[in-house]
Fold this protein.
Amino acid sequence: MKTDKRYLWYGKFDPLEETNCLIFPCNDCGILPIISRTPKEDRWQLSCPKCGKKAEGSRRKWQAVINWNKAQVSRIPYWREFPLFDLDRFQTPEDARVYLKKVRQVLENRVKACEQKLVAYRKGVLPRPPGRKYQERLRAFLQWCILAQGVCKYWMLREAKIEKDSHFPSLIYGRASSKMVRFAGWL
Ligand SMILES: [Zn+2]
């Protein structure tokens, strides 16, 4: 069965090259982290220049950025400003989540298909393995998709809370600086 094209296009973005497109500020200090690389171990790591907090490092820069972003749970950028998947075309974070769920499924299937092709290649059934960059790009898109799901969920809960407690000034709408609603997990 052919996959619907809507779920195969993730925006003009190369997740292996454009790793700096969205970096969350430090949870505690509200400032952007420093990206460093230890050449000896060939690892990338993000750390806060003020409090020194570090995220898990990785040999892949994009993965180090994702690791950092996932660890910052109370300064989540507004969902419509997420740079991938063209989320600003949706009316609500719920709508965006419905779309992202499908995108994630498609990406997971594509990653799985790559793994199967690799096995087939090793058995001599396929003449060529899937391209390494292609595989890695899919894995990176999948990680960004999971992150986008978390961002939409955060704003969905937050906007519901703001609506409920309507005595809050509308100014906080769209701002991620208050810890009013704690982030409730990535799924
Ligand atoms: Zn900090």
In short: Helices lie at 61-71, 93-122, 132-164.
